[in-house]
């Protein structure tokens, strides 16, 4: 990661939960956001997060977006400097995209973040992000770098027959158990990224299972009602 960018994944400690919709005390969540903004040296009011809905919707950040007005979507893209983008997760995969070599006439850096759960993977949200970055900023897949944060692993993501039947194109990502299946969402994401032209050497994958590591990460599948950790990406001035 170049010094031109801020790229960071939080964990359970020391920052804690960053989501407002999980029943946590609002003042505590606001304090966590303030601590994170101070730690990473960005203006909290400039941060754009999302009302995530397990879609493949990509939102192009505008001047109307900010900390108090999150758009409803599951991915964000921007070329604005000093505008942190945040994706919150607790088993779903946080995927960060950054490009410092956008083509003329755009001539600007560009970034994106995506919340990729099962539905986002099945509907290929990463392809939508890359397509939007190309259309808006002239990005080219071969020049884009990817950071993939911690998420639930195939070891812990048990699903039933109905999910397997629904996911015909993705049977390569399932492992058969005794009475159910285990789904590897990251295998789908990595396949889709490479199909879109992302170079394997440009992908960094933390590869830590959140359900196996609840000491360090929140896991909805393992814990039920729980907090959210986050991936943050920003173009520095």
Topology readout:
Blueprint: E1 5-9, H1 26-40, E2 58-60, E3 75-78, E4 85-89, E5 93-99, E6 110-116, H2 118-122, H3 125-137, E7 145-148, E8 158-159, H4 161-166, E9 174-176, E10 181-183, H5 185-195, E11 203-205, H6 220-223, E12 229-235
Parallel strand pairs: 2-3, 7-11
Antiparallel strand pairs: 1-12, 3-6, 4-12, 5-6, 5-7, 8-10, 9-10
Stretches where pLDDT is under 50 for at least 5 consecutive residues are none
Query: What's the CATH topology name?
Result: CNF1/YfiH-like putative cysteine hydrolases
Approximate shape: globular
Please report the number of helical segments.
Answer: 6
Calculate the terminal CA-CA distance, rounded to whole Å: 15 Å
Element order: H for helix, E for strand: EHEEEEEHHEEHEEHEHE
Q: Provide the β-strand percentage band.
A: 15-25%
Q: Record the strand order, biggest sheet.
A: 2-3-6-5-7-11
- Mean pLDDT across the residues is 94
Number of strands: 12
Share of residues in helices: 10-25%
- Helix vs. strand class: alpha+beta
């Amino acid at each position: 990661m170049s010094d031109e960018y801020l790229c960071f994944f939080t964990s359970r400690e020391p920052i804690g939960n960053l989501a407002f919709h999980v029943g946590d005390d609002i003042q505590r969540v606001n304090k966590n956001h303030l601590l994170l903004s101070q730690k990473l040296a960005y203006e909290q009011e400039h941060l754009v997060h999302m009302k995530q809905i397990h879609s493949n919707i990509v939102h192009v950040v505008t001047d109307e977006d900010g900390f108090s007005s999150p758009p409803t979507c599951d991915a964000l893209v921007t070329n604005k400097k000093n505008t942190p983008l945040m994706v919150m997760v607790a088993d779903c995969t946080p995927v960060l995209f950054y490009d410092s070599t956008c083509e003329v006439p755009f001539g600007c850096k560009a970034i994106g973040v995506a919340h990729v759960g099962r539905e986002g993977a099945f509907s290929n949200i990463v392809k939508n992000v890359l397509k939007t970055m190309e259309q808006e900023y002239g990005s080219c897949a071969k020049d884009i770098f990817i950071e993939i944060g911690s998420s639930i692993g195939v070891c812990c993501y048990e699903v039933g027959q109905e999910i397997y039947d629904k996911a015909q194109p993705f049977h390569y990502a399932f492992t058969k158990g005794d009475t159910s299946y285990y789904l590897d969402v990251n295998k789908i994401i990595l396949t889709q990224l490479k199909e879109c032209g992302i170079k394997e050497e440009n992908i960094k994958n933390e590869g830590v299972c959140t359900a196996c590591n609840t000491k360090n990460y929140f896991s909805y599948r393992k814990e039920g009602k729980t907090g959210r950790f986050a991936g943050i990406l920003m173009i520095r001035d």
